[in-house]
Write a structure and sequence with these properties.
The chain has 281 residues and is α/β, with parallel strands linked by helices. The chain contains twelve helices and nine strands.
Amino acid sequence: MALPDNGADTGSALPPLRDVIKRHGLAASKALGQNFLLDEQLLDRIAAIPGDLNGAQVYEVGPGPGGLTRALLRAGAFVTAVERDKRCLPALSELADVFPGKLRVIEGDAMKIDPVAEIGAPFHIASNLPYNVGTALFTGWMAQSEWPPKWLSLTLMFQREVAERIVAKEGSAQYGRLSVLGQWRSTAKLAMPVHRSAFTPPPKVMSAVVYITPEAQPEGTDIRQIEALTAAAFGQRRKMLRQSLKGVPGALKALEAAGIDPERRAETVSVEEWVTLARGI
């Protein structure tokens, strides 16, 4: 593969993603939760969601043939990508050759890799997350005790159902633990819907990109309190709070002190009220 000059038009010299996939025989693996996104304009729009990435560090999980990776590199980012599918490594190696010193690929399982240890400096996370580990990775990034985190923003592709749960407000059917986790010390918004037809192969469900930025953690709270409360309440979401929270030490007294009706159910309690309860325990 002939390498272009390392100039402003580097990205435009790349072969079409379909050609890369065909040349390397990269059929998407259902076992790895893969669905490849090939629309270059759409990929550039996703890479633009975090804002100016020129010179920024970006962590990507599951790059596959490198569709979003090349969009991030075109945006000027330094990318650290984790890929467990050995078949994709040659295509990513070619991409690293086109952008010298800008792309580092780690072969491995993202569930076992600490991006802070790998990158060090503050970084953005941008990924078309594999469906089978997307929620687990998200909760790991959001539930860490150190806050503010080393990551500056999350730009993540999920199944639309999961994305809607993350940004949902109280009173909606989608509102639950992921909503509170994504919003009690962060701002979460639905940045872009993505139709299933944009993927190869098309998944059975629609997708969406969620954009999250960390905010100051409310004083007098920590993630353990939030998780204990929401696990108990949303784990028995059809029950009244006085029943679902009775196993959490101090929760019923916190309900009374906060003036929250114990006959309410979990989906009616706002993020701010969950914070108040956590502070009261």
